[in-house]
């Protein structure tokens, strides 16, 4: 009895193995058909340079031993006979097998579509973005998941490159292209679609790309704003000016020059950084180089008045908010000039209209202050 049971068990095991082998062969054939049809599909063939070259060599025929060099087919089988027998069972009408079972070609009655802008838009209209898959998923896992949905023509696993290892990893999202727009519409009608317990995010590819474009634009704008603020703070720090250094003056001589003002103040011991004034103007500003230097000079001017070129010039020390407003505006102008110079260098003078050859204006200096800052009388 014991021996009979053991034999019976072995016999049942052999029968189960045969059933499993038959199932595996069926699955293998389906996988082979799916893979080779993908190679010759509307999605792949127009953009597969190598395969496009092969189909021009022998009236469209491609040797099966060439296809077995392709990685995914090679993983399924490299046996030409197995591949040929599988392809003979294809019912799509896309492929033809040669009489000697050693070559395959795309049905000549199905011309290869031209990959142009119109074609690209047509394909995008039936392509869907789906996210929420485990990042260790394989293409086979995804094929298995989507096999219950009609018309999935192509699955593109979206990947990113690790900066350190340089390896490419699955993002957990895919682009699905369907054979027809109607099949894509039907797929999009599925609400609350899940993979295992994770609900998938599903969008039309066009909507997804537009959303990402807007996100990138917003991030770029935010980044540029931050960089600009950082640069401005850096420049303000670089251009920090000492206080107690600004004198405002008024006079009525239309021929008074900046040099006249400069000579008169230098005679009092002033070290001048900049004089904001043009001939013909009735007021101007003098900025000195050292902290509180203007206070010292102001104390040397009796009643705040000096006679220069037979004209009474009235000086006033800027303090508090008046001085702060003047210095802030000066720093802003200096920073602006610095940025313009940087932009010019970056653009390599492309939009520069020869201004460098023009005669400098009297107040055109690298640290020039604002042209007008109102001072209280």
What this model shows, in words?
This protein has 377 residues and is of the alpha+beta class. It has three domains: 19-106, Arc Repressor Mutant, subunit A (Orthogonal Bundle), CATH 1.10.10.10; 117-215, RRM (RNA recognition motif) domain (Alpha-Beta Plaits); 246-328, RRM (RNA recognition motif) domain (Alpha-Beta Plaits, 2-Layer Sandwich), CATH 3.30.70. It has twelve helices and 14 strands. The chain has helices spanning 2-39, 49-55, 64-67, 71-76, 80-87, 117-124, 139-146, 181-188, 205-238, 258-266, 293-299, 320-346; strands at residues 62-63, 95-97, 103-106, 127-131, 152-161, 168-178, 194-195, 198-199, 201-204, 246-250, 272-276, 283-288, 305-308, 311-317. The chain has a five-stranded antiparallel sheet, covered by helices on one side. A four-stranded antiparallel sheet has the order 5-6-4-9. Strands 1-3-2 form a three-stranded antiparallel sheet. A hairpin with a 6-residue loop joins strand 5 (152-161) and strand 6. Helix 1 (2-39) crosses helix 5 (80-87). The radius of gyration is 40 Å and the shape is rod-shaped. The termini are far apart.
